[in-house]
Amino acid sequence: MSAQDFLTLTGVSKVYRRGQSLLERLKKTDAGGTKAVSDVSLMIRHGETVGLVGESGCGKSTLARLVSGLMAPTSGEIVFRKDKTGRTPRLQMIFQDPYSSLNGRWTIEDIIAEPIKVHKLRKGRAAIRARVDELLVQVGLSPADAEKYPQEFSGGQRQRICIARALAGEPEFLILDEPTSALDVSVQAQILNLLRDLQKNLHLTSLFITHNLSVVRIMADRIGVMYLGELVEEAPSEELFRRPRHPYTRLLIDAAPDMDTDDRSLHPIAGELPNPAFPPSGCRFHTRCPFAKDVCRSTAPPQKMTDAGGLYRCHFDLDLSNTSTVPALAKMKTA
Amino acid sequence: MTPLVSTPAARRSRFSNLRRAMLKAPGATLCALTIFAMFVYAFVVPLFSQNPFEFAGMSVLDSFIPPMWMTDGVPDFPLGTDDQGRNLFTAMAYGMRTSIIVGFLSVMIGLVLGGSLGLIAGFVGGKVDAFIMRLADVQLAYPALLLAMIIDGAARAALGAERSVTTAITIVVLSIGIAFWVQYARTIRSSVMIERDQDYVSAARITGRSNLSIIVLHILPNVMAPVLVIATINLGIAIITEATLSFLGIGIPVTSPSLGTLIRNGNNFLQSGEWWISVWPCLVLVLFVVSVNILGDHLRDVYNPRLKGRS
Amino acid sequence: MTSPLLDVRDLTVTINRDAGMVTALDKVSFHVNPGEVLGIVGESGAGKSITGAAIIDLLVPPLKRTGGTITLAGERLDTLSPKAMRAVRGGKIGFIFQDPMTSLNPVITIGRQLCDTIEAHLKIGGDRAKKKALEWIERVGLPNPDVQFKRYPHQLSGGMRQRIVIALALCANPALVIADEPTTALDVSVQAHILQLMRDLHRESRTSMMLITHDLGVIAKMADRVAVLYAGRVAEISLVGELFNAPKHPYTRGLIRATPMPSPDGNVRLDQIPGAMPGLGKTPPGCAFNPRCFKAEGDCCVTIPPLTARESAAFSCFHPLEKEVA
Predict the structure, then answer these.
(1) A161 and B CB contact within 8 Å
(2) pLDDT digits (tens, 9 = 90+) for C231-257
(3) Could you tell me if the ipTM is greater than 0.90?
(4) Distance, in angstroms, between C187 CA and closest chain A CA?
(5) Facing residues of C236 across strands?
(6) A97 close contact with B: CB closer than 8 A
(7) What pLDDT, in 10s, does the model give residues A319-334?
(8) Distance from B7 to chain C by nearest Cα, in Å?
(9) Which of A104, A144, A152 shows the shortest C-beta gap to B5?
């Protein structure tokens, strides 16, 4: 582990045993269980934001819960760099649903003060209250809101409260699990801008999970693309968009409709998402891949490195920089 | 940012919500007033009157006096007297007091016992959950009354015949409480299983809260509302159970009567024309239990989270 | 100019609450031309789903239609009896819901559900209905129609279920299809499939469509004209190209610029709209957008700007944006 490394995941897997028979459960075999995350290795450097994208069932949220410690991996290691005193870094998480992530019976003050009290970051009621007020202002709310209950706030405001609570723990590492997916576009922009400002000012290291490629492109320094529990490609953000190496990345970029009204073509990915409980043999993407050959059906592709420090799992070195249409850009966005 | 809802703190607004709901539901309000009046009756009247169950309170000369509006009735005994010459108006206040105390205490015991078992079952899950819930299933196979009788009988056998009034009441309270824990446990368990997967619990866990403080500080406040409604309704059932036990003669001794003892006492004279001895306590019991049930039903509607909007 | 297929004038929907009447839709007017796709876009709470439900009289109390006229091909829908309205629903107007799981009956096979709809609205029975149902299963792109015919909704994936919902909406040859967030519950790769399918079927049948969504990307690809709703009122109606390239209403432009869509140099700036949409019953006086609008002046806070038509567009704003020179 080099000095810069903050968090290292080595061969992390998670098997849900729900689908298994009792016998299989007792034997602790992997058969029958759903492998939600499969052999993921990832490294996050200090001060960096790594994004994870993928469709539902790709294991990105499971990975977030593994990293947060809410769940233990079935195999593999998740190692945080310890500081000089041997303490593991404090972490906080921001969730997708701004309704279920706040305790409706607590006031905003109690909610935001909880991490401060648990970690003993401030002493005395006055100091804690002052810190809560400061955090509320930092996330764009007012100190007067401290007396209220979560029910009195809209989804966007609740997400601000969640951010304030996360910051209250003075985390060195922040996990964001689809933090804006439940929000409307105009509110999403507010929250994303707030998060970007905080990233810049607080030098947070973070893991940003979303299904929206445009969002992750704005937020992350590096992006990992997941498909059926596997990390199929990982690269610096702009590199990933300019020169994707994995066909799935390319197709995923093209599949989301952009706002260009002159080119109205749609780019669906062939086939359907296979059941994650029974992933295809060989390369998991071969059932939908336009470049698939026989080798893809039989052999799992090796992990390859790129010059730019990215990695991908594909048998071929495809040039995908503009295989299908490069996502056209909305003209007014250059402002 | 402009908040969507303006200032009044939720605590206060919850209170005014209750008031508005009361005004909208005159039936439930009437029941609440009835219950309040009965509390006053049960706890204030004994302060100012001679206990009719002590020797000084009885006078055989005054026995079997009918209510005051009937012939032979006297204004000193507005509801009449029983075979020992006890004033029924004051006797019923004492009986009511015992009934209410027994009802409340047994509901508390059921709530605490069932509540904690339900919390543990729902939160821990797995084998612990399976064990507690199978225990509950087994208990549900017995009628609660039968179970209370078994526990009561077992305790009597263990403690022998010599018992003080307090011990007798304790036994009754415990047996009713234990007979009713299952309902609380099941309700709390299912709510806990929903709450423990909510993101706010995950957030507390990531922050480093222990399981115990998560249960007490986060989950408990969120699962209490439905259980408190059940407790209200069970208060009526507990009082009836106690009355039944006392009626059967295995509840509370005659020296410190409850409504059930009074009814049993009067039952002996129903055939001989002295109907008032058992009819009054019966009426009071019915009125109290019905009021408690209607109020409980109403509270269930008010606090049903599915009927409540998010705003 | 041809007469519109669907004409909605001053549609008003109110919510009856303890505190009194709250307006959810305030005099919404628009029309759908034959063969056209009208996109209806807005954020949650803008009233776009209520608009769809109001047209086919599927409002759930306490929501209630209290004013306005709805005309479909010359026939007034707002004065129809509930029985006549049932024939219109599923017959002349097909409906595609957001959640394919809840819009299909889980205990009836998809074949039976298709046959029921076909029998009820096309007045054909037995084998002919079954034949038509099988045709539709094939048309919406499901393999092995004979097998699918006997399957239950839970045996299909989300994308396949939504295909069946589309078949149900179209199988009675409706004149108009209302699609309420048809792809919101689906993954990106599946979404593109469903949009492609809707486009193909639309091209074949020339059925008019009302496409309700919050996703500007979907609107840009699918709609011919777009109505932007804000706080229960129409902010702007315009041809799709014009709307994206030269929006007139400040809210429209705000919405477009708030959608994350990075430029090639990686220099991304999200232009946020301050504040949030007013909640129900909390609409400010004057233009509903005035507290969040950078162009708001005194008149905006007093008078509700009327929907004024200019060229092919209509907008409700006193200080519309000028066309930007790129």
Answers:
(1) no
(2) 999 999 999 998 988 888 999 999 988
(3) no
(4) 6
(5) C228, C315
(6) yes
(7) 777 655 433 333 333 3
(8) 15
(9) A152
Beta bridge partners of B70: none
Closest to A275 in 3D by CA, of A228, A211, A226: A228
Classify domain B84-307 at the CATH class level. mainly alpha
**Contact of B252 with B246, CB cutoff 8 Å:** yes
Task: Give the residues across from A37 on adjacent strands.
Answer: A14
Residue of A156, A193, A257 with shortest CB distance to C217: A257
With a cut of 50, which residues of chain C have pLDDT below it? Answer: 325-326
Distance CA B102, CA B107 (A): 8
The structure tokens listed for A229 are: 């529990």
Phi and psi dihedrals of A245, rounded to 5? -105, -25
Tell me, what's the pLDDT at A19?
54
Reading the block at residue A137, the tokens are: 């202002």
CB-side neighbour CA atoms (13 Å) of C219: 28
DSSP result, chain B? ---SS-SS-HHHHHHHHHHHHHHH-HHHHHHHHHHHHHHHHHHHGGGGS--TTSGGG--GGGTTPPPTTSTT--TTSTT-B-TT--BHHHHHHHHHHHHHHHHHHHHHHHHHHHHHHHHHHHHH-HHHHHHHHHHHHHHHTS-HHHHHHHHHHHHHHHH-S---HHHHHHHHHHHHHHHTHHHHHHHHHHHHHHHTTSHHHHHHHHHT--HHHIIIIIIHHHHHHHHHHHHHHHHHHHHHHHHHHHHTTSSS-TTS--HHHHHHHHHTTTTTT-THHHHHHHHHHHHHHHHHHHHHHHHHHHH-TTTS---
Say yes or no: B2 contacts chain C, CB-CB below 8 A: yes
